[in-house]
Amino acid sequence: MLKAVNYIGPMSKGKSRPQLFECDDGKQYVVKFMSNPISPNSNKHIVHEIIANRLAQHLSLPIAKAEVIYFSQEIIENTPQISEFEVKPGPHFGTVYYKNKARPTNKERIKKCSNLQEMAGVMVFDHWVHNRDRANNLWNLIIDEGEYENKLYMIDQAGCFYSSRRNKEKLRDRAHSINMHWGKTYKNFRPFLTHKNSFKHYVEKIELFPDSDIRDIVFSTPGEWEPDHDELEAIYKYLTSRKSLVNEIIDNLLNEEF
Ligand SMILES: Nc1ncnc2c1ncn2[C@@H]1O[C@H](COP(=O)(O)OP(=O)(O)OP(=O)(O)O)[C@@H](O)[C@H]1O
Ligand SMILES: [Mg+2]
Fold first, then answer.
1. Among 18, 22, 90, 126, which is least packed by CB within 10 angstroms?
2. pLDDT at 106
């Protein structure tokens, strides 16, 4: 497990007030703490973050890679700037920091993304895991701006699985239908995503995602973040029972009929 070694500073945005740290691999990570008096459901949110992040990596989706990051008593004591978070020693959540990030707000910036077609996969994925917090939120998708090309990355998967309202009963009752999501983020990309195959490629990948791999990912969540085995079991069942439903959304997204 990575260890946090140096505090860099706060991120300028985010309800959970993410903090930037350098870790012992020499890279910088945007960190969300497992318990956080400023954001009472942060433990639930980072469960969603780590599960969705690992699922997305398995599907080769563009996502700011997540790591479980260990905070020692020493780094906590040596960083008075984070005292208000009452950070406990143990595993916390971080994603690799992209310092040249920009929002997907204009056509030129979007067009310059070398992985633009992967946005079709992001849209399919958001429906599979029920993440309503990207379609209409331009802050939860970043474009890493480069001199010759840009790259698109998903961030903030906290809103998956009904966000703070997630519980096993809700997951069980709502597994069998998919609500369509739409909004300005999807709209900005939609003119570039004209081929059905771009969507189909990811739908097929989800359909072929082995249940045993989904199980391993869900149950690799640190126990400190989600001690209730039944909650993880419900997330696992939610995901597996929706694999065969994502196919339904392709025509809706292409035709914007919803
Ligand atoms: N890996 C990253 N690289 C660069 N910037 C990032 C990264 N992760 C987060 N950010 C920046 O920090 C902001 C807050 O992050 P994030 O949305 O994950 O936090 P949050 O507390 O869940 O926010 P909210 O609930 O308000 O959306 C993002 O809008 C983005 O600008
Ligand atoms: Mg966000």
1. 22
2. 93
Going by their DSSP bridges, the two strands 66-71 and 151-154 should be labelled as: unpaired
Ligand 1 touching residue 36 (CB < 6 A): no
pLDDT tens digits along 213-253:
999 999 999 999 999 999 999 999 999 999 999 999 999 99
DSSP 26: S
Q: Secondary structure of 127-145 in the HEC alphabet?
A: HHCCCCCCCCCCCCEEEEC
pLDDT of residue 150: 98
Centre of ligand 1 to C-alpha 33, Å, is 13
Topology of the domain comprising 2-96: Phosphorylase Kinase; domain 1 (3.30.200)
Helices 42-58 and 229-242, axial angle in degrees (round to 10): 40
Of 166, 181, 199, the residue nearest 133 (C-alpha): 181
Mutate to test the pocket of ligand 1, among 33, 42, 142, 164 (most ligand atoms within 8 A of CB): 142
Nearest CA owner, ligand 1 atom 2: 97
- The label of the residue with tokens 């067009």 reads 111
Regions of the chain with pLDDT less than 70? 257-258
Cβ(199) to ligand 1 under 6 A? no
| CATH 1.10.1070.20 in the chain, residue ranges | 101-255
Q: What angle do CA 223, 229, 230 make, to 5 degrees?
A: 145
Which residues of the chain form CATH 3.30.200? 2-96
- What's the CA gap between 93 and 71, in Å, rounded? 10
Ligand nearest to the CA of 16: 1
Q: Is 141 in the pocket of ligand 1 (CB under 6 A)?
A: no
